[in-house]
Write a structure and sequence with these properties.
Layout lengths: L12 H24 L2 H11 L7 H20 L5 H26 L19 H19 L10 H20 L6 H4 L12 E2 L6 E2 H4 L7 E6 L10 H10 L6 E4 L3 H11 L4 E4 L2 H4 L8 E6 L2 E7 L3 H6 L2
Parallel strand pairs: 3-4, 4-5
Antiparallel strand pairs: 1-2, 3-6, 6-7
Helix pairs in contact: 1-3, 1-5, 1-6, 2-3, 3-4, 3-6, 4-5
């Protein structure tokens, strides 16, 4: 016999609610992990969306990560109380508002980020894909989480665990830029086809091999740089590598405008090839600049933080 007031064995309302909370919590944690790997890119996204709240993009990024992880851990551990579900609802609503706004702007012909949504820089999605995928992934799980909300004593230890996890992700995100996580945190990693590193969709798509067709054949060192970021530390070493004539000269990619490129060439006199690259295409390939990679016949075979290893090792 079933005890009075208990749920019969099987998949009942409480199980559905627990499943919804588990799925929603898992999605929040995966999204937070993707953003914690590159807190600078997440901060830039917050600034671009106008969500700084007058506190600065960096601070808001850390606060958002802590909230996302705290709620994710609570939901994953079965804490489906109103004080967890309603903030989770607000977070889901914010995600959908941002992706929906980008989708609408894109449909109106405005320029928007083509890689957007709650999963940071790791997932390449168009504005339409980001909105519909987030809607279908988050809303059903959220609605299920409200079914048969449990009551009982305050979940003290699970709440403490969520607080510890929230603090831990803030510490991790702060340390992450100095950790060797570039291959994990970006789309540029060994064995990736350069023709698959693209931005946009259909006929409007731009790939790395469109910017640099020569990369499809032979072996090349490619260096990603910001022209305004300490050029005195990398221009001369790359000039020396180019003039040494060992193998193909390095190809340097930057998101600078044609005007900035012209001024840079006049000021610094680089002997290496500088190639303008669309910012949306370049940004998912690095966390900090410069960053280098070796390609062979259109495939990434090696990545390196900073300048190519042979150049970097020769510097005092």
């Amino acid at each position: 016999m079933t005890a009075v007031g208990s749920e019969p064995r099987g998949f009942g309302p409480r199980s559905l609610g627990a499943l919804g909370g588990f799925v929603l919590g898992a999605v929040l944690l995966v999204a937070a992990w993707a953003k914690a790997l590159d807190i600078a890119a997440f901060s830039q996204q917050i600034a671009n969306e106008g969500l700084t709240l007058g506190l600065g993009a960096g601070l808001v990024a850390f606060m958002a990560l802590a909230l996302e992880v705290g709620l994710g851990v609570l939901l994953l551990s079965g804490v489906r109380r109103p004080w967890v579900l309603w903030p989770s609802t607000a977070l889901v609503a914010l995600f959908l508002f941002l992706t929906g706004r980008s989708y609408w702007r894109f449909a109106q012909g405005e320029e928007v980020a083509l890689d957007c949504g709650c999963f940071g820089n790791l997932v390449s999605r168009t504005p339409a894909e980001a909105f519909w995928q987030d809607l279908l992934l988050l809303v059903p799980a959220l609605l299920l989480a409200f079914i048969a909300v449990p009551r009982g004593a305050f979940p003290r230890w699970r709440t403490v665990s969520a607080g510890i996890a929230a603090l831990a992700v803030v510490v991790f995100a702060y340390l992450a830029p100095d950790l060797p996580l570039d291959d994990l945190a970006t789309r540029l990693k060994p064995d990736v086809q350069l023709s698959e590193l693209c931005v946009g969709e259909d006929d409007a798509a731009v790939c790395l091999t469109d910017v640099a067709p020569e990369l499809t054949e032979g072996e090349h060192w490619v260096v990603l740089v910001d022209l305004a970021e300490s050029p005195e530390t990398w221009v001369d070493p790359l000039n020396e590598l180019t003039l040494a004539g060992h193998g193909a000269p390095p190809l340097v990619l930057t998101a600078a405008s044609p005007e900035a490129l012209g001024e840079f060439r006049w000021t610094w006199g680089p002997t290496f090839e500088l190639r303008e690259t669309p910012e949306p295409l370049l940004r998912p390939l690095y966390r900090t600049l410069p960053r280098s990679f070796l390609s062979r016949d259109g495939v990434v075979v090696l990545t390196s933080p900073g300048l190519p290893p042979a150049v970097a090792e020769s510097q005092p």
